[in-house]
Amino acid sequence: MVAMTKRNDTRAVKVGTVTIGAGHPIAVQSMCATRTQDVDATVEQAEAIRRAGGDVVRVAVDSARDVEALSEIRRQTAANLVVDLQENYRLAAQVAPHVDKIRYNPGHLYHHEKDKPAREKVRFLADVARAHDCAIRVGVNCGSVDPETKARHPEDDVAAMVDSALEHCRLLDDIGFTRYVVSLKDSHPRKVIEANTRFAAERPDVPLHLGVTEAGIPPEGVIKTRVAFEQLVSRGIGDTLRVSLTLPNPRKHEEIAVGRQILADIAAGRYRSVPVFDDDKLNIISCPSCSRVENERFVELAEAVKAMTAYAEAHALTIAVMGCRVNGPGETDDADLGLWCGPTHVNLKRRTETVGAYTYDEILPRLRDELDALIEARTAAV
Fold it and tell me: 283-381 has which CATH code?
């Protein structure tokens, strides 16, 4: 962990052997990209992250078979584990005995058991966490804010993220559970900076987990992340962080080294010239590979998209490449062109409109056709 100065006076949240907040060194995290049911591979990656200096390691759980694997992973690794709950919050009761922190997304919580009030779902999660000595992360993502909250802020998606986070803090506070951390993530550094700054002004007591989601392939992904971290950590905002890069499985632990280097530079006053991402050129975003990816060709595809679209660099367009069905459909909605990957096909979108599903061998030429058409239409409109 890296010690910093001028930190916000957040409360302490214990996660296994690490304490987040309350002036403790900023903890650096990463997430396993292996399939959770592949116990050997997941343990190997968790240990690689831990040995690289990772304070917390996240794994995803989507099924009962994942839970069964998680219990064995817990037995074989000394890492502080956090589980990523996506579409079934009730799995928390089964995973909590094996982990140190539970992460849930308020947007995904909204879509499961819609007739049940959010307060009841949050109480269930808090009761489970309390019974098993777990912390909680309230993980708000730009592309999955629940529709009711988005409707309250039709012109300000950052305000919608902050509103969602504040609402869930109130729910947890009201039931007396304060052992939680909040994250507010977007693929654009400016929105990450704005969301976390707004939230910290409202709730300076709550520890913040920083990250630029879907930062993409290095070096661009590193630059985007550095921009956000330099602006936030220098203001005393941030108690733990993750650098979310699109990397092949054997290189996932490199996220730790990048995060620590950025923190070391900030601590030493070595600020880089800060690029401004004003959406005035081609912007490619891609999610960090994780265990929800159903075809490992996703990473190769993201790299191929970057190479193929280089000719369009001067055009202010966004292309999103997402690796799974959980975040893919929603988090490509704001992109001019979006790809989200399934086991055998890649789904191509124009913002919220579905173009079609294509094999991994077919998708690049089809994407280029759509990109050329979009560029031609925009050029003609000028």
Answer: 3.30.413.10
